[in-house]
Here is the input.
Amino acid sequence: MDHFADHPEFIEYGDRSQSPLLEAIIPEICKQIFASEVIIRDLLLIDIPEYKFFHGPFHVQGRMGNEIYFEDVNTGTIAITELPPSSGEVKYSRFSARASHFGNEYKYS
Here is the structure.
């Protein structure tokens, strides 16, 4: 199966959630991708706790983005595409992240 969004069982499996770690890191990664300040809009994080997995869409710089993140290995990917009509360009970033032991500080690479 390579298309999940049109399968109700997939849509119903996860729950809308929040992640201070992802909410902090996604803008920082997008800032590096676009080499400028960015505003993340419409971030929707879906958590599937059984698999320690987050995924979800967002908008940045007039483009659609999506993230996936695996908590058990602290690794994720962001993909950002142009909205139609476009060149078909997609920007990708793989990242590793973890919360610091010092307050609300997050580390990523």
